[in-house]
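Q: What would this complex look like in 3D?
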Amino acid sequence: MTRKAAPTLEDVARAACVSTATISRALNSPDKVASDTRQRIETVIEALGYTPNFGGRVLASNRTNTVGAVIPTMANAMFASGLQVFQQELSTASYNLLVASSGYDAGNELQQIKSLVTQGADGLLLIGSSRPPETTRFLELRKIPYVIAWCYQAQDKRCFAGFDNIKAASRITLEVLQKGHKNIAMIAGRSAQNDRARNRIIGVTECISKFNDAQLLSVNETEYTLDAGGSAFEDIMRQPDKPSAIICGNDVLAAGAIVRANQLGIKVPEQVSVTGFDDIALATVVSPALTTVRVPQLEMGKVAAKALLELISTGMAKSVELPIEIIHRDSLTDAPEAY
Amino acid sequence: MTRKAAPTLEDVARAACVSTATISRALNSPDKVASDTRQRIETVIEALGYTPNFGGRVLASNRTNTVGAVIPTMANAMFASGLQVFQQELSTASYNLLVASSGYDAGNELQQIKSLVTQGADGLLLIGSSRPPETTRFLELRKIPYVIAWCYQAQDKRCFAGFDNIKAASRITLEVLQKGHKNIAMIAGRSAQNDRARNRIIGVTECISKFNDAQLLSVNETEYTLDAGGSAFEDIMRQPDKPSAIICGNDVLAAGAIVRANQLGIKVPEQVSVTGFDDIALATVVSPALTTVRVPQLEMGKVAAKALLELISTGMAKSVELPIEIIHRDSLTDAPEAY
DNA sequence: CTGAAAGCGCTTACAG
DNA sequence: CTGAAAGCGCTTACAG
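A: Here is my prediction, written as structure tokens for the whole assembly.
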């Protein structure tokens, strides 16, 4: 099986009767080459089926035109669709996307980051702002351009493309309180290695604490699965002090809670209101449909790509804070008077 | 901003008092190096914070340790979770994953394939078996190792990691028929550039044609969204000849149909049964929960990764056919007697 | 606008 | 087990 060697710049140069330098220019900065030469070169390239060798190009230019993304998980719809837009945006700039997942584990994240950087990623997309010093040190040391999505911190010099999770969580909490709910519970994501989950808890807590007659009965941290949401719901509804509303850390948890409620014969929202977070497809499919906070997933992907590209080429890019929105559907209603 | 140049093999060699060749060996085939030399080298590498330069390595070895995946869309949960497993499996073999999406468009797919190959992908994961000759030619010409997921064709010499969509669609159809349904409709994906969608239609059609007293009233091709599923459902139920069961090309379509049915006050499954395909999270969240065919998403990701790695290193790998399974939930019930 | 040539940082036969 | 050296295929000042 003798695999005919792919044509090289050398081959093209010979066939087109120019130097390799000119061909390289014709490819990378066409305007520096006379148009007739350029035409001749293009013909030859076409005829030979030449494509630049990746390794040669990378070694000489020290750039890969590749960007890496490390996300918590691809299995959750909330990251996947943003990633899609991110990739499309990169694609228009002739950049490719390397993807890895951390499984919400900081050690794993560092490992994946190192792997992507070793594979030559020119820049990185990361989710969330807080990570162990070891990771931060690595990023700094290697001067890796990176943008952080899914959160926003005004005072921070790093580049964000996201929204303020504390504010967003406060917003949905306010909706709940305005419906007259006094006894509230929260089903949250695991906050230990997840600043978004943590900040959503903070947002809920802070908002409730401003209302004298309202109280946060409990915060149940759990993994982001339907089952876990269901179990947490069941636990909460077994307590003597039942809430009239449950605020969930994301839509998966909320959908899990509602599905379980339906199975247990507990009426949502008549007996308990439930709210979500993220606004993924699930939110419209559960019954009752989720009142939730819509997170600008697609917009984040797009903005993050632009920022990262700019960061790579110019060395700096501005953070952008995207707006969230409360989506009113059927899972949140007025607190029962008698309560 | 003088960015201190990263240490090279050269630097390590000098510091460890050995040749660059030895270091390269210590890195790539440690057993070829005396253990004390290796130790010394490791210390120096650690001290200098050396990591191999990607471009140099790629140019010299002609391998990137990167594979690419071109999937129809990341936004749909069915591909995303398989991709996650695929990446994890690659990761254990020190391979990285480049991802791109085609949006179910063949032209787009070719463009993305070219882009990934240009970026040095050692191999490719592709979804589905049928593509334009132009694409096939490119793949052949460049001798790109690739594996095809989400389908399986016994007679084919290409490498598959998937299941037989025709058989799978027949299986679920048989379930429907065995419940006594005679008048059936199908809501399918767009089959033009999508062999899975096409084969599922074939499977349904073939199976029904074997039953003399049953008929396929209509096949409604539409895009894979909740709304499209809902609209198709509405159209179907507006016809004078209503089906007693609707077989859907995937869970998104089925969930969309059921949500719409609920809104219209049409009872599922009492008035119409509805079945899905894929078994994604949505299937358990809609109410009634979907009777559907479970596709081995995660297993496919894993098997595909193994096959691709083997294909890259040895030049060949066997196709594997994975089993599907019918998941019985609540959206399919007996046909009304009176019908 | 074009060419000659150095150099990017590795890997890998080939010798020893 | 180790080293000297060629070579991978580009890009990019530097001259002209």
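A: To summarize the key features: Chain A has three domains: 9-61, 66-164+297-324, 165-295. The CA atoms of residues 188 and 249 of chain A lie 4 Å apart.
Q: Very helpful, thank you.
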